[in-house]
Amino acid sequence: MVTRREFLKKAGKATAASAAIGAGYLFADSALDYLSRNMMVRPDLPIGELFLLGFENTRIGLLEEFHDHFGLGGVIVFGRNFESPSELKEIVDEIKARTSTNLIVAVDQEGGDVARLSGSGFPTFPSPAYYGEKGDLPAAVHAAKVTSEKLNEIGINMNLGPVADVLTNPDNVLMKHRSYSGDVTEVCRFVRSIVGAQSEFGVASCAKHFPGLGDASIDPHKEAAVSEQAAEFFEKNMFPPFAAAVEAGVSAIMTTHLFVPSLDPVHMATFSRRICDGILREWMGFEGVIVTDDLKMHAVDDAKEAVPKALSAGHDMVLVGTSFDEQLFFAGRLWEGVESGEVPKAAISRKIDRVKQLKTRFEMLT
Q1: Is residue 229 a contact partner of residue 173, using CB atoms and an 8 Å limit?
Q2: What is the pLDDT of residues 255-304, one digit of tens each?
Q3: What is the domain extent for residue 269?
Q4: 18 pLDDT more than 50
Q5: Residue 164 falls within a domain, yes or no?
Q6: H or E stretch at 289
Q7: Domain annotation covers residue 27
Q8: Which of 53, 188, 230, 243 has the CA that lies 20 to 30 A from 212?
Q9: Among 159, 199, 157, 206, which Cα is nearest to 364's?
């Protein structure tokens, strides 16, 4: 059996052979074959708890391999993973059987256009903007409760919502229908109630997209978004809904790939200690799990260092939607950073504890 250091050294050589991360460090089949030939004991420090991974249905065995080597925090479900809720339940059950029942299973089920589950008997509801325009909080809460109850039945225990962004830029196409309102007081009202409604039916909430994407004009899926607004603007218009979510007991908050020079003149939120540790953790007093948005978005231009940088900034979990070869590299790169002292073990332990506390709260740990 090879040691962890030998494993990572070999993995590092394999990854270095690739021209660019976008092309993939390892082919998934060869990565799985490599792991099978070089089985190692999962580290005492289960760094995989800090990963929220996308997956392909035909390669669930790769999740099993990842879990066996590093541990696994959770998975995120996309529309590509199923054709019906019943099929998705079977997939979720299989993943848990092959990895662990102690998993976060997350989905984007905001309503409107951003709803991964629809049809085949799964209830669908309008967008957040629909309820916000009407000021119909009771209807929005009803939708959240029905959705959460059905998600729970399938085995999904985290909804990546509510959307806590305040739509201050009317030209923001990305958030136009996803935000409840351009009125910060209204957004606070909806966010606070939706967090409570989802929790009532056993679904953890993940408010997004901190520090607030409602003013941006660029989609971070394509490139890094930028806001030139002053810090006072964010304090008055963007932060209150997240503070409301914290007061309501939100379990997690997702950041976004947004560069705000007034908050951090060097780093976008994903890699900003000022924003994550400074504003969200210390100033707002948030004690839950801070999650990145997908590190495979085009806004992230230094993907090789993305995981240690995001965790060092204050995140507790990193979302990597695709692909297994890169997910494997990211985990290996993190463990390498821990072993070298670049990423302190004590800090990683605290992050793992936060993830486990979330799981305990929603009975994901058995």
Answers
A1: no
A2: 999 999 999 999 999 999 999 999 999 999 999 999 999 998 877 877 78
A3: 4-14+46-361
A4: no
A5: yes
A6: strand 289-291
A7: no
A8: 53
A9: 157
- Cα(216)–Cα(17) distance, integer angstroms: 38
Confidence of residue 43 (pLDDT cuts 50, 70, 90): low
Structure tokens given for 207:
């408010």
Which two three-digit tokens encode residue 269? 């939120």
Structural domains of the chain, count = 1
pLDDT in tens, 108-151: 999 988 888 876 678 989 999 999 999 999 999 999 999 999 99
Tens of pLDDT, residues 146-164: 999 999 999 999 999 999 9
Rounded (5°) CA angle 330-331-337: 90
Token pair for 288: 């839950």
Residues serving a catalytic function are 221, 293
Q: What is the CATH number of the domain that holds 134?
A: 3.20.20.300
Is residue 305 situated within a structural domain?
A: yes
Range list of β-strands (E), 78-135: 104-107, 109-111, 114-115
Q: Which class for 176: exposed (0-12), middle (13-18), buried (19 or more C-beta within 10 A)? A: middle
User: What are the helix (H) ranges across 238-293?
Assistant: 239-247, 273
The answer to whether residue 33 sits within a structural domain is no
What's the confidence (pLDDT) of residue 24?
Answer: 39
To which residue do tokens 């793992």 refer?
352
